[in-house]
Amino acid sequence: MPKSLVTGIALLVIGGLCGLALTQTHQLTRAPIEENRTRQAQALLSELLGREAPTNLQWVSGVANACGDWQFVRGAKGGYAGPIEYIALLTGTSTSISLRVTRHQETPGIADFIDHSKEDYLPNLDNSPVEDWPSLDNISGATITHKALRAMAAQAQTLRRDAREQATCEATDA
Amino acid sequence: MPNDFGRAVIENNPAWAQLLGLCPLLAVSNTVANATGLAIASAFVVIGSNTSISLLRRIIPDIARLPCFVLIIATFTTLTVMMLEAYAFDLYSRIALFVQIIVTNCMILGRAEVFASRQPVGRALMDAMGTALGFAIALLTLGAIREALGQGTLMDDMDLLFGPAAASLRIDLFSTPPLSLALLPPGAFLIAGLAFAAVQGLRNEVSTPKDEADNTLTTERP
User: Fold this and answer.
1) How high is the ipTM of this complex?
2) Is the domain of A48 the same as that of A77?
């Protein structure tokens, strides 16, 4: 049998074994992982809203409760080390926003300010317009991450406006 | 076979003797709980991958051995990430990034290339257990010193790892932390540097004249 064929078969066997182990573990852990993520997301939504968030939210194009008094928006923007995912709360038609980062790969230590479980930077900005956010100079060494935060806020406003237009809500944004 | 274990723990300790795996060692050793989490995760990966590589050593093609090793190590790392996210979610949220980069830990790839791929399963397993224990000792030592100095406690947040009952393991040492810097990255470098120096000092104390002669020869080599 040619050596290259033997090598190919060996690689297939090794790859197959690895794939099998991953598939089986995924089957085993899928339910608890999904439960953990849902619980974490629900806790985050309730924290943003200041009361128990509804559990049956319908998300359309990244926006929940598009025609209500408040909207949750979820999305992602590129940071220094990949996409930064977020959830934002926008109230009424104002430009005030509360924002939390739900997943990121930014440099630990330098970008800890976007992690609400480590620092109060984002909670301290709750319900304030983006224009009032502190200037870039306050976040030394995390320029790209900080720019991504502002981009997230802008994206959340756009997504909310588009969702309200799409849902033909009675009151439109100012 | 027990020699493989002992050598891997002390003589070839991956962190103190070979200075391998320093990125996660410095980053995650800020508390004993985090250090324990990473030590368990690393142990699972090194033991699983060493054993698998030793079992598969006769069918792993020599020309593609490194990609195969990385594939096997990545598989065990991914399994660890999934298990942590499923069953220790709070701890996962804190150390996830550093668990994921176990796949690039040269300590694990090094043992696979140098030992597991050339030895029978029993010896590879003992070597992996010794390497895991050696790395765990380094992590926990650094974690204990940094948490004690930087936070004034020992074994805080162990409930994240072992359930609510483990919360009682917390020991309060100081009401005011004596050196908050210890929790920060510069503190990690300073304390790890002092620990390396202490270990080297001890190794020099116990080394025989023959070892010293060998060291001299080694350092004099052009």
Assistant:
1) 0.74
2) no
